[in-house]
Amino acid sequence: MIRKTIIITLGLILLVFSGLSFYKSRHLKEPVVIGPGVTQVKKLSEYFPAIKGSANDANVYVLEGAKKGGALLVLGGSHPEEPAARLTTWILTENATLEQGRIFVVNSANRSATTVTRPSGAYPASYTIKTDWGGQTFRMGDRWANPLDQWPDPEVYIHYPTRQNLAYMDIRNLNRTWPGRANGTLTEKTCYALVELIKKENVDIVIDLHEAELQYPVISTIVSHQKGLDVAAMASMVLSDEEFKMGMEKSPLELHGLSHREIGDHTNAVPLLFETPEPFLDATRGRTDEKLLLEGKDEFVVRAGKRGLLFEKIDEKGWPIDVRVGRHCSTILQVLDVWSQDHADKAVALRNVPKYDEVIKKGTGAFLRDPSKADPKLIYYE
Amino acid sequence: MSMTTSATIILAAMVAAYIAAKIFKISTELSMLAAALVGGLVGGAGLPARHIAEGAFTYLDICLIFITATLFMNLLKESGGVAFVVRRILKRFHKHKFLLFIMLAVLMLIPGMLTGAGSVTVLIVGGMVATVLGYMGIPKPKAAAIVFVIAGLSAAAPPVSLWAMLTAAGVNMPYVGFFLPLMIPCLVLALLTIFILGWKSKPVDLEQALKELPEPPARMNWLKIVLPFLVFFALVIAGRIWPFDFPIMGLPLVFAFAAAITLLLSPVHIDFLDVSRRTVHQLLPLIGTLTCVGVLVQIMTLTGVRGLISVTVVTLPAMVVILTLFLTLPVSESVLMWGAAPVLGVPLVLLFNTMNLNPVIALAGMSVIWPLGDAIPPTAIIGRLTVETVGMKERYSTFLKYCIIPAVLIILVGTLMVIFSKKLAFLTVF
User: Fold this and answer.
1) Domain coordinates of chain B in residue numbers?
2) What ipTM was predicted for this assembly?
3) Are A252 and A262 in contact (CB under 8 A)?
């Protein structure tokens, strides 16, 4: 009896403390202080009402220039465990202005996936970016939507509409469920809603921001649908020449469900996917904590690199978050520059977005705005 | 302090905690939990409630499959279905040793294939098959060896192969293409095992055997046994044929449907609550192991111990890794049970991938070898369970001695699958 009482008590203590932590991270508020360029904040459900009220009814920040031009959609949080992607969208929504064209920014494309961390992954519940005013905390998130929002998984995930067999859990992976399905799962519906946005707003380019483990061959690169190869190739050449080494890859024709394949096949838009290196995701990583996530330094990953097992270089300097965010910012700017030169009538002229060197010099936190000092009308929550 | 030094110290503390727990006769699953808690404390994470709870949920879906599949099998046994099948096989094939062995091997493969657990094979059909083998003059340690080895192969066989599923999930690899690479070696090795170990058997004394085997209910027939399986496969296949129109049920619910059909068709009254309770009781050690393995892996990841093991494995000379699989896989299984898959399987698959080997075939080869560790102390859960179920009174080492020949064959086949995985890639069709 005493033994049972002790076990039940310990179980209850574990339940309370862990439950509080899960509740807190699932409901952590992430403020966005919209910048001068944002003219409207819409909900994704405005493009597809079936997702209204769901975990994935994301905010869509609209930036409009005085001059007519092309339209760009930037997706952050397709995989929320890749923080440089979401942080880049924060920089855009809080700082960018537009002279020409329109930009749609979704900071949490798979919002459900921002509310969960991976069992056995030992991820921190959240991470904080240092700022002059203290810091801003973000939900850590995972690669897949929260099972609380979408469960159970099938024993094999069959992609719509190609019927390609994929891993069962990838039915919750936003970058495996494109082009989406109106009567599908939450993640499929989210992709469907985003495709509706692309079609209704006549989006010309879609940029899907990601990060990758160094053991993954698709890294430090722009992956492009065949429609966007010229833009991707030119941007990669200029970036490699002027700022940092950047590759370019063609989206495989037979690999389905990914944004760079399906958006190109099912809409008029040109999809591009950017990858930066994130040692935190490597299977050989050492201690898993916020420090590794933000500093990107890991002795074991360096050892794996010396053995020739990695597809990107790493040394004791690691891959800090500012470097990764800076790469995304510069790549967006460079792609738009190339696109606008080739498509004068559909140009998108983006201003007040820091480039690679500036992000490294000032830090990502320098581009986050203090919500406590902002007009409450300008604050939106992710 | 370097990361290597710190992770090595934490690993040493975890190993010490595990050994100490075992010395105090604490169960394997609680010993793993103790090792995890000590790892957290020594690693400076304290007692991280969030990580303990999150790790414990890692294999929730697999636990649900376990419970519902075993409930299905237990209901089939309670309804007299299993006894019916064994008696029919015996009556039909008692004069044909060749066919009888094939039928018994297939019969033993089915429960483990569907549930992913060798223990289910042992508990559901192991005792009855051992009885039949006994009537053929096969000594109990040899019969136990046949049941144990085939039970292990049944667990590795598709569609539910936990080692392959856990490792594939750990490297973000789809659990697709594994059916033939797992099915062919498991079936062939199961047949080889029963034929080699049962070679010197004599014809069955049918009258005596039927007298001692449990009598199935009079109204039991093939339809009542086959129908639940048909429902199971129909639901799985419907999800594959009409994936965009058929609701996603998940394997646990599909097994629950099959169990419900078995219950409805049973010719005898079954106390459902009692069977459910016994099923959960029977599975507690396995569910406990999966839960504690989840916690252990989470803490190992948190503290860098998993990274240390991974990087050590992937930086070893490749041939050394492959040629010692016969040792590392069973030993890791004997210590961590399925935990061996995420801890050791993941870095091995990453290494094989970088060596340009076929990861599906290589993982299938490893999955065939892993279950051998279930006979080796400290855990030896399936080995001990088999010996008890068969009612063997001889020394445990006698049973182990009879396992050697099939074990060598399994190791050979598994290792060759890894080495020649690229050439066998044509098997990964579905």
Assistant:
1) 3-220+267-427
2) 0.96
3) no
Reported as a single tens digit per residue, the pLDDT across B314-323 is: 888 889 999 9
Q: Which pLDDT value is given to residue B86?
A: 84
Residue in B53, B61, B302 closest to A288 by CB: B302
Residue A354's Cβ-count burial label (10 Å; 0-12, 13-18, 19+) is buried
Which residues are paired to A274 by β-bridges? Answer: A209, A222
Q: Is A9 on the interface with B (CB under 8 A)?
A: no
- Contact check, Cβ <8 Å, B52/A286: no
This prediction has a pTM of 0.88
Residue A285 confidence (pLDDT) above 90: yes
CA distance A108 to A94: 15
* A181 touches B244 (CB < 8 A): yes
Domain ranges of chain A: 35-381
Matching CATH number, A35-381, of 3.30.70, 2.40.50, 1.10.10, 3.40.630:
3.40.630
A270-287 mean pLDDT: 95
Q: Does A160 touch chain B (CB under 8 A)?
A: yes
Residue B303: list chain A partners with CB under 8 A: 287
pLDDT band at B378 (very low <50, low <70, confident <90, very high): low
Q: Which residues of B touch A122 (CB under 8 A)?
A: 51, 54-55, 298-299, 301-302
Task: List, for residues B228-243, the tens digit of each pLDDT value.
Answer: 989 988 998 898 899 9
Question: CB distance B54–A185 less than 8 Å?
Answer: no
CA dihedral B93, B97, B100, B102 (to 10 degrees): -140
* Selected residue with higher pLDDT from B375 and A308: B375
| Residue A298 to residue A90: CA distance in whole angstroms | 27
Pairing of strands A31-33, A379-381: antiparallel
